[in-house]
Amino acid sequence: MKKSNAIEVKNLIKTYGDVYALNDVDLNISDGEYYVLLGPSGGGKTTLLRSIGGFIRPDSGSVVIKGKNVNNLPPDKRPTSMVFQGFALFPHMDVVQNIGYGLKIQSIEKNIIDEKVNKMMDLVGLTGLHNRKPHELSGGQQQRVQLARALILENDVLLLDEPLSALDAQLRKDMCIELKRLQKTVGISFVHVTHNQEEAMSVADRIAIIADGKMIEEGTPQEIYNKPKKQFTAEFLGEKNILIGKIHNLNKSKIVLHINNDKIEIANNNYNVSKNQEVRVSIKSESIQIKKNIKSKTNEKNSIVGKVSEITFLGQFVRYLVLLSNDQEIQVRSSQEVPNLKLNDQVILYWKLDDFILHSE
Amino acid sequence: MVIFFVLPLLLTVVWSVFERTMFWMEPAFTLFSYENFFFSSRLENFLSSMFHSSISVVCAFFIGFPIAIFIRRRVKKVAQHRVMLLFILPFMVSEIIRIFALRPILSRNGVVNSFLMDMNLIDSPFSIFVFTPTGVVIGEIVSFLPFMIFSTFLALEAIPNYIFEVCSDLGVNRRRMFKDIFLPLAAPGLFAGSVFIFVNGIGIALIPTILGGPGSVNAGLIATQAIIALDFPLAMAVSAIMMFTLMGLLYLGHRLFNLTKLLEPIS
Questions:
Q1: What CA–CA distance (Å, rounded) separates A157 from A240?
Q2: How confident is the model at residue B264, as a pLDDT?
Q3: Which CATH class is domain B2-262?
Q4: Do B159 and B266 contact (CB within 8 A), yes or no?
Q5: Which chain B residues have a beta carbon less than 8 Å from that of A153?
């Protein structure tokens, strides 16, 4: 059975002067789905989130939440709650007051509020911190208070605007796991904005790549990461190597590509291309194998020769920059250091047939 | 700090118990000046000037705080400091002239009365605006209102914008916003502004001199009059009493509201 939509965004447009912050965005988010808006800063993802929350009035287009058009409703009248960027707590209220404030202004009885606050504090992991003021809490705890303050209102959708950006790397990882668990527990839709791909990959059911006010593509984390349809996605998600080549020959399973004087083969995944067409292909830096070139010519079919121009030790990885004969640099991320490899050494790069992805535009 | 603050205060107390001579005073220990203060109409004047200052503080709160909130919330960020500058402009004019200028405005045939008469709101002009305690309160509000606006605006300016977004997400109405957000977060500024107005209200002799009638004498004026009469120990005693009263009030405020906590920066 197809799940019903929690949020439907149609043809959303928002301009600031003559800059399009949102340029005709469509979006459907299912009930109980963890949806992440991922993209570079200034790409429009926060504008999109704030339009859903009612903090920004779009120029045109519609936002429908739970089957109800909310275009003309202010934030508090929409079935959404927001977790803001940074530590957006009331500085003069303690944890209990912060969490319960949303209910207090709805004139709900104090003992009901207290009960709900206690339940919420246990849920988000703040047990025992009742009377702490925000400045007495760690960054992670402050964000938990924000989560509790938003979730206690029991709205249908939780909007999170870069909720973890102010936390350090380790805490961010822990909070990702927490967020995912929390979302499964409460069962409502989460819409999470971030520019951090690791964060996005670890929490999302589905990811939308947003840039230049447009939805570039959406899909599950695996789809987006392993088989990006658009070149932008490939470039944005980590150290991707983009090569431009001309199709020399192709059949149902393979495409032979000329990149300057080198010839490479890639798997043909029903790409809509023809002979002699110029295309862009990409490969992830960790998919490339590297070895020292002893002979001047190589017999590996899927390989290319180059010269090492930089070696960077990154702890878990070693990153090599390899200069190809056409002066293009390729990044290689290797989990093991290649013995005796020095700067300016000749190397062979090779890969599996289907590691290369072709981008049609 | 010691030279400019503690030492003068100590000297004030020491001199207040000296004996009065014809033109100066000589070292002694006598409480004559204090007797002179407490068992005369001076005490009554002192207390009434505290009362009038309190009224000025309350009025300045009700006029100044909403103005500060308005500037923080409704004026564009770039224009906010320019608007604040407008409230500094009156200080370019000497205080004497500023306060003296209120006389033609508030007098029986002054601007305010003629306006009210022309609008047919009153039949005969009010005479309570000048040369009365009311006049003094009006003068104090006009003079010191900017300080209430400044100090509260600075406190409000420190409130991060996200607070207002959270409030709109939670659906906080204006009344609750005032009570739950603005009042507690601007409390340090309100306190600073109130103390400033109160202290100046009982201390500055100029305003009752120019706008007050025979009945309106504040502590500053008592001291000034004592100096004119060459009764320096009395002037010192009045100053010392003023000082201790304020310290007492601050202590009371501290006990009641825990001022150090109030003045802690918002994190």
A1: 34
A2: 57
A3: mainly alpha
A4: yes
A5: 170
